[in-house]
Amino acid sequence: MPLTHTTAFSQLDNIADDALVQLVYVSSLTLRSRLSASIFDEVEGHAKDFNEQHGITGTLCYGNGHFLQCIEGEKAKVAALTQRIFADHRHKHVEVLLLGQVSGRRFADWRMRLLFLERWLWSPATKQQAAQLSPYLPFAPHGWSPERTEQFLQIIKTFDTPPHIKAAGITYNALGNMVRHIAAPHQAFLVVQGFLSVLLIVGLVLLYL
């Protein structure tokens, strides 16, 4: 079961401050953030600067309005970063999927690279490379089990080039998701209205023939 903010930090109490720990959390972008094409450049830029200064590695994945981030580093540094993450109002519904001491870094050479999981915007080369991700798409990491999370991390670790898209594409996708979110509860009504509209047009055409 995903951990809450309070539960996650209580698990760190028995770990030495200089121990190497791994934290994997998921969250959802707010609608305002999803409509901002610059947010990914901002997140990646801030993460790069902070992580290089504090010896933190990992990966940040985005897709379908959700983030999954893996953070690795000294416990004290990871705890400080986690406080900042949970206080960031650009996302919501933050849950911790994995947290604990590890013997080595999984993403030692990544330095927190941004991985986009919007398959419909990938290049053909990216689609071929990321074929193993099909069971995890559309991306919905909330509630993933530790086993599923570990399997996902193991797959993306093998990528030579992380799948990525232009930030503007995220904005278009957010607009599409917003329309889908609004329309979905009224789908039956919209179908009926569309059918009646077609009948009305046909009737008017026949009337004036």
Going across the major beta sheet, what is the strand order?
4-1-3-2-5
Strand content: 15-25%
> What is the straight-line distance between the termini?
66 Å
Number of DSSP helical runs:
8
The biggest sheet, with number of strands, parallel, antiparallel or mixed sense and barrel status, is:
5 strands, mixed
Q: Tell me how many strands there are.
A: 5
Specify the structural class.
alpha+beta
Q: Calculate the mean pLDDT score and round it.
A: 76
Residues in helix, %? 40-55%
Oligomer: single chain
| Unreliable spans | 166-187
Order of helices and strands: HEHHEEHEEHHHH
Please give a structural write-up.
The structure is a single chain. This protein has 209 residues and is an alpha+beta fold. The chain is built from 8 helices and 5 strands; from the N terminus they run H-E-H-H-E-E-H-E-E-H-H-H-H. The chain has a 5-stranded mixed sheet with strand order 4-1-3-2-5, with helices on both faces. The longest helix has 22 residues. The radius of gyration is 21 Å and the shape is elongated.
Main attributes?
5-stranded mixed β-sheet, 5 strands, elongated
The gist of it:
The protein has 209 residues and is of the alpha+beta class.
What's the structural blueprint in terms of helices and strands?
Elements: H1 5-12, E1 20-29, H2 31-34, H3 39-54, E2 57-63, E3 66-74, H4 75-86, E4 91-101, E5 113-116, H5 124-129, H6 146-157, H7 167-183, H8 187-208
Parallel strand pairs: 2-5
Antiparallel strand pairs: 1-3, 1-4, 2-3
